[in-house]
Write a structure and sequence with these properties.
This protein is of the alpha+beta class. It is built from seven helices and four strands; from the N terminus they run βααβααβααβα. The chain has a single domain, classed as Nucleoside diphosphate kinase-like domain (Alpha-Beta Plaits). The structure holds uridine-5'-diphosphate and magnesium ion.
Protein backbone atom coordinates (compact mmCIF):
# COMPACT_ATOMS: atom_id res chain seq x y z
CA UNK A 1 0.00 0.00 0.00
CA UNK A 2 1.15 3.51 -0.76
CA UNK A 3 2.19 5.64 2.19
CA UNK A 4 3.85 8.60 0.53
CA UNK A 5 4.92 10.94 3.33
CA UNK A 6 6.74 14.20 3.88
CA UNK A 7 9.06 14.78 6.82
CA UNK A 8 11.11 17.72 8.02
CA UNK A 9 14.87 17.40 7.96
CA UNK A 10 17.37 19.91 9.30
CA UNK A 11 21.08 20.04 8.65
CA UNK A 12 22.17 21.48 11.99
CA UNK A 13 24.77 24.23 12.59
CA UNK A 14 27.67 21.85 13.23
CA UNK A 15 27.22 20.25 9.81
CA UNK A 16 26.59 23.48 7.89
CA UNK A 17 29.70 24.93 9.53
CA UNK A 18 31.78 21.98 8.28
CA UNK A 19 30.39 22.41 4.73
CA UNK A 20 28.56 19.07 4.83
CA UNK A 21 25.37 20.42 3.25
CA UNK A 22 25.87 18.96 -0.23
CA UNK A 23 27.27 15.70 1.09
CA UNK A 24 24.26 15.13 3.35
CA UNK A 25 21.78 16.10 0.62
CA UNK A 26 23.42 13.61 -1.72
CA UNK A 27 22.87 10.87 0.88
CA UNK A 28 19.15 11.67 0.94
CA UNK A 29 19.00 11.63 -2.87
CA UNK A 30 20.92 8.36 -3.06
CA UNK A 31 18.38 6.87 -0.64
CA UNK A 32 15.51 7.93 -2.91
CA UNK A 33 14.25 10.88 -0.91
CA UNK A 34 12.96 13.78 -2.97
CA UNK A 35 13.85 17.21 -1.55
CA UNK A 36 10.61 19.05 -2.32
CA UNK A 37 11.36 22.30 -0.45
CA UNK A 38 14.50 23.69 1.09
CA UNK A 39 15.99 26.87 2.47
CA UNK A 40 18.91 28.05 4.56
CA UNK A 41 17.93 30.11 7.59
CA UNK A 42 19.31 31.30 10.90
CA UNK A 43 16.82 31.07 13.75
CA UNK A 44 16.42 33.51 16.59
CA UNK A 45 16.59 31.83 19.98
CA UNK A 46 12.87 32.50 20.48
CA UNK A 47 12.12 30.61 17.27
CA UNK A 48 14.28 27.65 18.32
CA UNK A 49 12.36 27.57 21.61
CA UNK A 50 9.10 27.28 19.71
CA UNK A 51 10.46 24.63 17.34
CA UNK A 52 11.73 22.47 20.23
CA UNK A 53 8.79 23.19 22.56
CA UNK A 54 8.18 19.42 23.01
CA UNK A 55 11.48 19.38 24.95
CA UNK A 56 10.80 22.42 27.16
CA UNK A 57 10.88 20.42 30.41
CA UNK A 58 14.14 18.62 29.56
CA UNK A 59 17.38 19.62 31.30
CA UNK A 60 19.07 20.15 27.91
CA UNK A 61 16.34 22.46 26.50
CA UNK A 62 18.13 25.78 26.98
CA UNK A 63 21.43 24.55 25.52
CA UNK A 64 19.55 22.86 22.68
CA UNK A 65 17.84 26.13 21.74
CA UNK A 66 21.09 28.09 22.04
CA UNK A 67 22.70 25.57 19.76
CA UNK A 68 20.02 25.39 17.07
CA UNK A 69 20.07 29.20 16.85
CA UNK A 70 23.88 29.47 16.90
CA UNK A 71 24.39 29.47 13.13
CA UNK A 72 22.83 28.82 9.74
CA UNK A 73 20.82 25.64 9.25
CA UNK A 74 19.39 24.02 6.12
CA UNK A 75 15.74 22.97 6.44
CA UNK A 76 14.28 20.55 3.93
CA UNK A 77 11.06 18.72 3.25
CA UNK A 78 11.88 15.12 2.30
CA UNK A 79 9.36 13.03 0.40
CA UNK A 80 9.36 9.25 0.07
CA UNK A 81 7.28 6.19 0.94
CA UNK A 82 7.33 6.04 4.78
CA UNK A 83 9.62 9.08 4.79
CA UNK A 84 9.32 9.72 8.53
CA UNK A 85 10.58 6.31 9.65
CA UNK A 86 12.96 5.92 6.71
CA UNK A 87 14.63 9.24 7.55
CA UNK A 88 14.93 8.30 11.22
CA UNK A 89 16.65 5.05 10.19
CA UNK A 90 19.02 6.86 7.84
CA UNK A 91 19.86 9.45 10.55
CA UNK A 92 20.72 6.88 13.20
CA UNK A 93 20.53 7.12 16.99
CA UNK A 94 20.46 10.51 18.72
CA UNK A 95 23.91 9.87 20.20
CA UNK A 96 26.40 9.39 17.33
CA UNK A 97 28.33 6.96 19.56
CA UNK A 98 25.29 4.67 19.50
CA UNK A 99 24.40 5.19 15.84
CA UNK A 100 24.88 2.30 13.43
CA UNK A 101 27.51 2.25 10.73
CA UNK A 102 26.16 3.77 7.53
CA UNK A 103 23.93 6.32 9.28
CA UNK A 104 24.37 10.08 8.92
CA UNK A 105 24.93 10.64 12.61
CA UNK A 106 27.54 7.86 12.78
CA UNK A 107 29.41 9.35 9.85
CA UNK A 108 29.15 13.07 10.68
CA UNK A 109 27.89 13.55 14.25
CA UNK A 110 30.30 14.99 16.79
CA UNK A 111 28.35 14.46 20.02
CA UNK A 112 24.79 13.98 21.30
CA UNK A 113 24.11 17.71 20.97
CA UNK A 114 26.09 18.28 17.76
CA UNK A 115 24.57 15.35 15.91
CA UNK A 116 24.37 17.01 12.48
CA UNK A 117 20.71 16.37 11.58
CA UNK A 118 17.15 16.59 12.83
CA UNK A 119 14.22 14.53 11.57
CA UNK A 120 10.54 14.53 12.50
CA UNK A 121 9.51 11.56 14.64
CA UNK A 122 5.78 11.20 13.87
CA UNK A 123 3.21 12.26 11.25
CA UNK A 124 1.81 14.87 13.67
CA UNK A 125 5.21 16.39 14.40
CA UNK A 126 6.17 16.26 10.71
CA UNK A 127 3.14 18.38 9.85
CA UNK A 128 3.78 20.86 12.67
CA UNK A 129 7.47 21.14 11.81
CA UNK A 130 6.91 21.53 8.05
CA UNK A 131 4.34 24.25 8.75
CA UNK A 132 6.74 25.96 11.15
CA UNK A 133 9.27 26.55 8.38
CA UNK A 134 7.23 26.55 5.19
CA UNK A 135 3.76 27.89 5.92
CA UNK A 136 3.40 31.15 4.00
N1 LIG B 1 19.83 16.29 22.99
C1 LIG B 1 20.84 16.68 23.83
N2 LIG B 1 21.05 15.95 24.99
C2 LIG B 1 20.31 14.85 25.29
C3 LIG B 1 19.29 14.46 24.42
C4 LIG B 1 19.06 15.20 23.27
O1 LIG B 1 21.53 17.66 23.58
O2 LIG B 1 20.55 14.23 26.33
C5 LIG B 1 19.59 17.07 21.76
C6 LIG B 1 20.06 16.32 20.52
O3 LIG B 1 20.75 17.24 19.68
C7 LIG B 1 18.78 15.84 19.90
C8 LIG B 1 17.79 16.92 20.32
O4 LIG B 1 18.20 17.32 21.61
O5 LIG B 1 18.92 15.73 18.49
C9 LIG B 1 16.36 16.47 20.38
O6 LIG B 1 16.27 15.32 21.21
P1 LIG B 1 15.46 14.04 20.76
O7 LIG B 1 15.35 13.14 21.91
O8 LIG B 1 14.17 14.48 20.11
O9 LIG B 1 16.42 13.35 19.69
P2 LIG B 1 16.27 13.19 18.10
O10 LIG B 1 14.81 13.10 17.79
O11 LIG B 1 16.92 14.39 17.48
O12 LIG B 1 17.03 11.93 17.78
MG1 LIG C 1 13.22 14.27 18.29
Amino acid sequence: MSNMEETLSIIKPDAVERNLEEKIKSIFIKNNFQITRQKKVKLEKKEAEIFYKVHETKPFYNELCNYLSSGPIVVMVLKKQNAILENRKLMGATDPLEAEVGTIRKEFGISIDKNSVHGSDSPENAKTEIDFFFKN
